[in-house]
TrEMBL record:
Name of the protein: NAD(P)/FAD-dependent oxidoreductase
Molecular functions (GO terms): oxidoreductase activity
Provenance organism: Kitasatospora phosalacinea
The FAD/NAD(P)-binding domain, residue ranges: 5-284
Gene3D superfamilies: 3.50.50.100
Amino acid sequence: MTGKHIVVIGAGYAGLSAAAGIGRGPDRVTLVAPEQRFAHRVRQHEIAAGRPVARPEIARVLRGRRVVHRATRAVELDLAAREVRTEDGERLAYDTLVYALGSRTAWGDVPGAAEHAYSAERAEELHRRLAGAPGTDTVAVVGGGATGIELAAELAEAYPARQVRLVAAGRVGGWLSERGRAHVLAVLDHLGVRVDEQHRVTAVTADGLTCEGGDVPAEVVVWAASMEPQPLAAASGLAVNARGRALVDDHLRSVSHPEVYVVGDAAAVDVPGIGELRMACATAMPQGRYLAKLLTGRTGKPFSYRYVTQCLSLGRGKALVQLIHGDDSVRPRVLTGATGRLVKAGIVKGLPLSLR
């Protein structure tokens, strides 16, 4: 592969770890991503609460590697011509493309959601809104998954004068073990979060939420209901599944365009004994590392993966570490208290250090 040009689009957990690893090899690598600093998405709830979050410079992560960072956004892929077109008009020809644009908040076609709600991607804007608004405003967080739980706990702790409500279409933390879910609910209750389960949101207005289980008035709405892949893969003609995730083989190569590799949330990675891996930094970063080894000739084996844990921050002082089987099914055991907090903190703080 010596002398080839590899273009990586996206600098999230998968893309940045892939670019840094591929940059150790002999090929030219161009990373296309508008960010100057690593986003560290699993800490967006802390940013929303005004907590300081360490976000390393991308240039520092790539220091000493054969990687040129183009701080711009990929807006079009010409798969036939093998070109990436950027928002500033540049056309980058590639021999191999690594597609790692990841995912974004999905609004689910709910009327008014995109117009009236804050997503996790707008964490800094959400913080400015809360910091400058009356302290008694009600904040409704929509979504009973990990992102919604972490946001609700963090905001309730950071703004104790506000009423924080966590609104879920099903059970909050319903994928957890019974012990894990009970711990989450107990911490939320301690923080003063009102939990509204079985409340499917049908519309978002300037006055709050319209729900099947009863309306929820709120001055601020935060949307964390679900995620979806960025649409560029499907729009460009890569083969995708019904959810828009690119179809790949067991070496993470596009089944429709073998010169394109797809990693992270954008890829529908099917692992024997598990099925399609869920969107998470825990699955994205190993894919980026694997692809770096593959493209630099350090492995030729198919990609393999096994789950270990799932971690949740519950404010600054508490956390939950849910132990899981390799196939992502939950174990009864959880880690809480000081042990859970230290394990969670170690994982989150260690992620940027392991990008190289």
